[in-house]
Amino acid sequence: AQSVTQLDSQVPVFEEAPVELRCNYSSSVSVYLFWYVQYPNQGLQLLLKYLSGSTLVKGINGFEAEFNKSQTSFHLRKPSVHISDTAEYFCAVRSYTGNQFYFGTGTSLTVIP
Amino acid sequence: EPEVTQTPSHQVTQMGQEVILRCVPISNHLYFYWYRQILGQKVEFLVSFYNNEISEKSEIFDDQFSVERPDGSNFTLKIRSTKLEDSAMYFCASSDPTGPNYGYTFGSGTRLTVV
Known about the structure:
The complex is a heterodimer.
Chain A: E1 2-5, E2 10-14, E3 19-21, E4 24-27, E5 31-38, E6 44-50, E7 56-58, E8 64-68, E9 73-78, E10 87-95, E11 102-103, E12 107-112
Parallel strand pairs in A: 2-12
Antiparallel strand pairs in A: 1-4, 3-9, 5-6, 5-10, 7-8, 8-9, 10-11, 10-12
Chain B: E1 5-7, E2 10-13, E3 19-24, E4 31-37, E5 43-50, E6 53-57, E7 65-68, E8 75-79, E9 88-95, E10 105-106, E11 110-114
Parallel strand pairs in B: 2-11
Antiparallel strand pairs in B: 1-3, 3-8, 4-5, 4-9, 5-6, 7-8, 9-10, 9-11
């Protein structure tokens, strides 16, 4: 089985400042990695995913994440956040052969004006 | 962009009552899923459904839960006798058969409150 740890439950950051949301995973098999965002009263929207190839992946809304296999991490970054980035962010993994996702507990990002 | 639609967005029910949560997956998708998120906790897999049968289920998905695709468009989750601990956000998702995440789309969720 797989598991995902998001080390920060809440991250406040000032507008236009950079942010990093941390994600570590554990798995005995190879996995794909994902970040989802949930805006208030909305569903889960895919931000970005790592399937193979370059370890730096770019997603929507200026976010990017870097897969580090040796550290089993997939941290999410944005160089300059906007008020509209305020949301809950979920890291998730899925094995190459499985259909189900394993999610972390989420990180609540609050952008302060 | 195609969406997974869930209804209702919020449902309140009394303990012991049966509830049915409804989902309309994306039309050309063949795999369907239910996940739930208890407040403050992680999103957890409940069940996956393919070719009119359950393909995988978690320990959470016990006998009080059932899923059905009653027609060509709807996918439902039934909870037979709700308990207080069933209060959660329930997400439906669907995916296409062509790859690991291509087209895996979540709905906006149904918030179930059991009182």
